Amino acid sequence: MLTASASAFRIISYHDFAARRQHIQTGQNGLIALKAFHSGEMITGFHAGTIAATPTYLTVQIGLRRHITLEPDFLQYINHSCNPNVFFDTTKMQLIALRSIEPNDELTFFYPSTEWKMSQVFYCNCGQMNCLGEIKGAAFLSAEDRLRFRLTDFIVSQLAKRAARIKRA
User: Fold this and answer.
1) Where are the beta strands (DSSP E) in 15-160?
2) DSSP string, 51-76
3) E strand or H helix at 165, and its extent?
C-alpha cells in the first residue's frame, strides 16, 4: 500500500462510494473511499462481467474453472493487502467492509481470500507487520494464516475437501 501524500496521486475517475486514483510516479492504481463505512457494512453489490474457465490477474474465482471479471469494472482497482479492509463475498456478490473505513482510505482485499491458486504469483509490498511476502493463493496458506483472514465460501469448501482427502489418506 502506498503511503505517499495525496499530492503524489491524481484522480482518474469518481464513482458513488470511491475514486480511482493513480500514483503519478509509479502509475499504480488504487480505489480510495469517498465516505465512511462501518465494519460488516455492505459497500456495494457486484456481478460477473464475464465468466472464464481460467484465471487472469483481473478475475476473481467463484468456483472450479469459474473466474469472473468484476462489474462494476472499477472494482478491479482494489489492491491486495495482508491487512485488508474489504472482502468480496462471492456468494452474496457483495463487497463488505471488514473494519471501519474512513474517507481517503485505500480499499484493499486479501487476494487469496478469493483465489485458490494465483494466476500470477507476486511478492507483496503492503508493508504490514504481518505481511505474508509471496502471494500464491489460498492453497498455499498455513493453517494459522487461514484463520487470520475471511475467505470466500468457495475457498472454504476447497480447504475442507483437501482436509478430507488428507484425512482419508
Assistant:
1) 18-23, 29-33, 42-45, 47-52, 59-63, 66-71, 79-80, 86-89, 94-97, 108-109, 122-123, 134-135
2) EESS--TTEEEEETTEEEEEESGGGG
3) helix 153-168
Q: Looking at the whole model, is its pTM more than 0.90? A: yes
Q: Which CATH class is domain 6-168?
A: mainly beta
Question: What distance in Å separates the CA atoms of residue 101 and residue 103, rounded to the nearest whole number?
Answer: 7
Beta carbons within 10 angstroms of residue 136's beta carbon: 17
Q: Where are the domains of the chain?
A: 6-168
Q: What is the mean pLDDT of the chain?
A: 93
Which of 97-106 are b and which e, b meaning 16 or more Cβ less than 10 Å from the residue's Cβ?
A: bbeebeeebb
66-71 β-sheet, strand order: 47-52, 66-71, 59-63
Question: Residues 78-91: what's their mean pLDDT?
Answer: 97
20's CB contacts (< 8 A; 6+ apart) are: 11, 12, 13, 29, 30, 31, 32, 74, 77
